[in-house]
Amino acid sequence: MSLKINQSGVTGKGFSGLGVSQRGNMRFFEKALREHWRLGQNIVLCWSATEKGVLLLFVPHYFLSYFTESLNEGQTTDRMQALNGKFIRQLISGQRMMSDEDLYGTARRFELNPTFIELPVPIFQDPAAMDAVDELVKRYSISYVESRAVMLLDIVDFSLFSPFEQTSQLNSLSYSLNSAYNKMLQANINIDFARTTTGDGFYIWNRELGPLANVHLFHFMLLVIADNAIAKRKSQGNTVPVIKSGFHIGSHYEFYQAEGLNPTMFSYIVGDVTIELARMLDSAQPGQIYIGDFQTKVPTSFREGAYLLDVDTAQFVERVKKLNDLKGVEIADEKTEAILSYLTGETGASGGESIRKFRITDKHGKSRFAYNLRINIYRQGQEPIILGMQDSYLPKPQFNRERGFLNTNFNTANVQPKNKRRPVVKT
């Protein structure tokens, strides 16, 4: 159930599932919730439904800092702190509703006193109302997401442009996002995307969770990059940006900042996945598309209940080609025949091709691996548009007879063999 929330209560998608009495009930509950929230001084850990109302566990906003090491998967010698940190992370993941017994057990564990809010209308046997309460509770809390796809779009040389040009470029990129969303809807793919600005670009993610949500975000990224590229070719001056892009799957925390007397309407994310993306794009060249090194699950089809496959990055990119429903979509008023993506590599003497895996080392000396992605857009009666960086333009690995491939100053290239040969496309 997806809800949109404003200062007067729950509205929009999902609200139609609530009766008139429960709509007023949710407004009453949010008002009471806001009073205990105290402008962000407190957050909600969990809640349970009772016959007459709702039980909640509130903690000060700094409560989670007691478990910083274990929440960051750091090494701690305190066994109890490690167990509590693991428990807290599970507690703030997914649904916040629990049974009365579990809530009181959590209260005893952390020496907390539950807060009771009596409601005008009971929600105990109303699944839609309980879903609405759970969504409201998350808005007044911090959430942990273990695995989610996130993309990062970064405008090249943004600080060198005039304020008007910067505004135009951000507006152009926003239009590409909205246009891509519309194309997804036309292809009967409903993606509930969210974004937060980085100043010179956007982090974008799918509010929905799960393997198919990650696939949809990847296809969404292809459309956004394609729309931006075609718009750039048709534009004059610096009103449409040159971008570099990244896609990664990993963990993050999600929160709503205090804005006046209420939490903001939109959430913000920060965590391993956003940090990895930022570090990847620090070394990316204009127009380049980086894909992170990850493990995830991908469904075998769009059918509900489809079997899930464990895949790495290379297998993910191959698999999403088979789940591609984007044939025939129009991008920047140009009809496409196909949009294909692939990880780049080098052609060997035998005629085969390998995928190159790059090591990216940041200014702090921390490293991560990434892949270089290219996108081919085939149009009716026209030459294909090739997006992304050619592999020949990227740093080559140094080779040592004793140690094999070594790191370059830029990154490494660890060559991974791939049996399937790719078609040759002119660029």
Describe this protein with a few key phrases:
disordered C terminus, 13-stranded mixed β-sheet, disordered N terminus, three-stranded antiparallel β-sheet, alpha+beta, 427 residues, 24 strands, Alpha-Beta Plaits
List the topology elements.
Layout (H helix, E strand, L loop, with lengths): L3 E3 L2 E3 L8 H18 L4 E8 L3 E8 L7 H4 L7 H13 L8 H11 L4 E4 L8 H13 L2 E14 L7 H24 L6 E5 L3 E6 L4 H24 L8 E13 L2 E2 L2 E2 L4 E3 L1 H11 L6 E4 L2 E5 L8 E5 H10 L7 E2 L2 E10 L1 E3 L5 E9 L5 E13 L5 E4 L9 E3 L3 E3 L6 E6 L9
Number of extended strands: 24
Provide mean pLDDT, rounded: 83
Query: What's the level 1 CATH class of the largest domain?
Result: Alpha Beta
Radius of gyration: 24 Å
Compute the separation of the termini in Å.
45 Å
What is the SS-derived class? Answer: alpha+beta
Largest sheet: 13 strands, mixed
State the oligomer: single chain
Name of the CATH architecture of the largest domain: 2-Layer Sandwich
List unreliable stretches of 5+ residues.
1-14, 399-427
Number of domains: 2
Q: What is the count of DSSP helices, taking H or I runs of 4+ residues?
A: 9
CATH topology of the largest domain: Alpha-Beta Plaits
CA-based shape: globular
The CATH superfamily of the largest domain is known as Nucleotide cyclase, GGDEF domain
Share in β-strands: 25-35%
Helicity, as a percent range: 25-40%
